[in-house]
Amino acid sequence: VFDEEDLALVAENTFGVREQTPRLKRLKRGRGRRASDDDDELRAELDDLMDTNESPGADYADEPRRDVDRDDDLGLFGNEESDAEVDDYRAARRAERRGHANSRNERLDTAYEEVRDNGVQAGAHERTGAMASFLAEGMDAIDDDTWMELQDIFGSGEEYAFAMEAPLADRDPSREKTLADVFEPAELEAKMMTQRDEDIRTSDVPERMQMRATGAESLRPLSEDEIEEETTWVMRQLHSWLTRQEARRGREHKSEWDTDNTSDEPTLFQHADFANERFLAAVLSVLKLLSQDFYEVPFIARHRREVFVTAESESDVHGEEPPTREWLSIDDLWKLYDFDLQFRGLLAARRHLQNMVRRLKGEGVDDSTREISHEDEAYASELIASASGVEDIMDVTEWLQAHYADVIQKWSRERAGMKRVQNLGLKERAKRNGTDRFVERFGITARQVGDNVSTPGRHTVDSNTSEMPLDAARELVGTELVSPDIALKAAKATFSSMLELDPQLRRFVRAYCDEHVCVVVRPTDKGLREVTHDEHPAFAFKFLKQKPVAEFMGSAQFIELEKAVHDGLLRMQLSLSGEYRFDNHDLRTDDAVFSEDRDRSARAVTVQLDEHMRSSASGDVAAAWDTVRSDALFMAVRDHLLPQMWRETVQKLHQQAFDYVADACRRSLEQRIDVQAARTSSMRTGKKPRVAVVAGGGFDASSRGALRVVVVDEHGACSEDFSADSMRMQSSGALADGDGVAVLRGVLERQRIDVVA
After folding, report:
1. What single DSSP character describes residue 720?
2. What angle, 0 to 180 degrees and rounded to 10, lies between the N-to-C axes of helices 426-433 and 390-403?
């Protein structure tokens, strides 16, 4: 049996009508209100009961008193008088909401008119928020009550309007908002709408020439003197590169995959003749077009061929054009393009170094502010003049930064305007612990060792000391160096740091490594399990031993090797020795073997340099000092020089492999697109065809108006064009052909068409 409350609940859910209302109600309704009243009234009543828009404690004194009696269950069973007050309050609230909705709709209508008339512009209106973008979806179909409910649930859209507004202190009325103020940088970069992209579009320079480098040097036309210097530098680099290429091709023992990778590689500079003035003039002219006019290689190859194609003879005996000689191919032009980019990097690094030297000299300020000594200035100038690559310039830069670290850090602090922790330079550290005085007893400086390496016999070792190294180290014992052994180790470390920073020593070690370095590869536990068949990409490198780095040139092998190392399948190490005692049955011994190999590689370089710092005197004292110098040199080579050379070598191999892949992709693309025009059997050589081009999607009955036919004559001009709905030909006579078939047949009958594409 249902009671009164159950019947009321059933009536409300089935939209029934009940004439009597219970005396006591769970939820307060308006007096005499029935469950079948309008849905909007019921919805507004529920909004009032669940209203959370008002802030706590806001103007409750002006609202009708809801809790008439505290003992009356918080007013839920109020009397008729309180019900009337609540009904009046709800009616007032609904009227107030309708008023706010009308005013808000008026503002949105105004904003919509502005957007429709003026277009969407950043900063055109400030307070429309997310509602302005919603206007385009058809807001007229939403009534006021539904609109109020949406705002009560989701908000008015103005809660985050502050995100589109700049702080009051940063607002500039005259400044318009840009795309960077509204969109994320990653999104702008993906759409190519950054300021960099805009600069590329507005600059009258090909995009490739702007994208190949950044900075002030990238788009600066080189002067005539710089072009002459670049030509000399390119010729020197080209001669060295061709020598290495010939040595690589002349190797008798090549691996199988190396032969496959280099079979399609073109031979560059087949007509290179360094004694021929025409070849030199062709290279100079191409470099001018690249560095001064910023022409692209395809443009030079097709439209400026006169700069690298010359006639074999000036006389025309038979009345025909003399034979010509093409000094440079398009592959040669791309190689010169790479050389030009490298030379610009060299110019930028050298300019930065020269500015540093001038500032250390105090040039343009005062002679009293001079920080660099005249001897160091002359040494730096000599090294800059003989630098042949960016690596040599960076060596001189690091040498200056280490010797004048306190001055350079002072510049950084002045520029930043804040205090930073000062890092002591090489000289300051040596002065603090007193090892600078002990290093003077070594009988030779790091610079003199470098001079002896570049010019053997230039300096000799001063062996006038009669004390053993350990006895001389007792003078350094103090608060920082507590024993002679520790003092001697600190002195070795100081001299080792001086040796590894010397630019001439670095240049020698770099050249020695480029000639003798090899790659050693060992599998990991994971690689031993997974790389088990010859179809695996890493199988060819699984047990690679003593493969010269030069054999990686002209192929993409190093990319595959790097991928295997990155996946944890292989371990790779560069080496200068040929002794490997690996145990293929126990990979746990590989770490010890690799460590021994690093020591042997360092010892191989030390032997080459040790003779330039060995004393000519005999005796136990001279032998002891030779041992100390040799130990310091070994530390410099093992801990500093070789790791740096290995990083540079890996970077070169990585870049060379990517260049090889990019060049192969370029040649493949050129083979696809660089073809002659279509020819028929009746056409003479050199004659261009007349083409009818049919394009679009009108080859079936479902497409309408999507077909376009254009007739192009032998001069490249459009002689006739039309559009059609379909070009479909019917096999049976019951169905008509497409409307474009007859028109195209008429064109083919009227005009002489060689090719239909």
Report:
1. E
2. 40
The amino acid at residue 254 is K
Cβ atoms of 741 and 729 closer than 8 Å? yes
Rounded CA separation 179/193 (Å): 8
Contact (CB, 8 A) for 224 and 295: no
- The angle that helices 374-385 and 330-361 make with each other, rounded to 10 degrees, is 170
Phi and psi torsions of 54, nearest 5°: -75, 140
Give pLDDT, residue 191.
87
Which among 580, 519, 594 has a CA at the least distance from the CA of 553?
Answer: 519
pLDDT digits (tens, 9 = 90+) for 594-603: 899 999 999 9
Q: Are 621 and 517 in contact (CB under 8 A)?
A: no
Residue linked to tokens 């030909």: 729
Question: pLDDT, tens digit, for every residue of 481-516?
Answer: 778 888 888 888 889 999 999 999 999 999 999 989
Q: Band of the pLDDT at 264, cuts 50, 70, 90?
A: low
DSSP label of 674: -
At 71, the amino acid letter reads: D
Contact present, 481 and 433 (Cβ < 8 Å): yes
Q: What secondary structure does DSSP assign to 266-295, as a single string?
A: PPP-TT--TT-HHHHHHHHHHHHHHHTS--
The pTM for the full model equals 0.67
Phi, psi (degrees; rounded to nearest 5) at 217? -80, -15
The runs of H, that is alpha helices, within 637-719 are 642-673
Pair of tokens at residue 268: 């560059």
Class of residue 552 by CB neighbours under 10 A (exposed 0-12, middle 13-18, buried 19+): buried
Q: Which residue has the tokens 């190999």?
A: 597
Residue closest to 96 by CA, chosen among 67, 62, 127: 62
Query: Can you say whether the dihedral through the CA atoms of 441, 445, 446, 451 is positive or negative?
Result: negative
> Cβ contacts of residue 561 below 8 Å, gap of 6+?
519, 521, 538, 541, 570, 572
- Per-residue pLDDT band at 649 (split at 50, 70, 90): very high
Residue 554, token pair as written in the block: 């002209």
With 0-12 / 13-18 / 19 or more C-beta atoms within 10 angstroms meaning exposed / middle / buried, residue 289 is buried
487 to 274, 423, 482, 498, 630: CA distances (angstroms) = 57, 22, 7, 17, 17
Kind and range of the H or E run holding 635: helix 620-636
d(CA 196, CA 515): 41
List, for residues 147-177, the tens digit of each pLDDT value. Answer: 777 777 777 766 656 555 655 555 566 677 7
332 confidence band (pLDDT: 50, 70, 90)? very high
Contact yes or no for 428/401 (Cβ under 8 A): no
**Sign of torsion over alpha carbons 449, 451, 457, 463:** negative
- Cα 171 to Cα 180: distance, rounded to the nearest angstrom: 16
| Residue 630: pLDDT band with limits 50, 70, 90 | very high
Is the model's pLDDT at 59 over the cut of 50? no
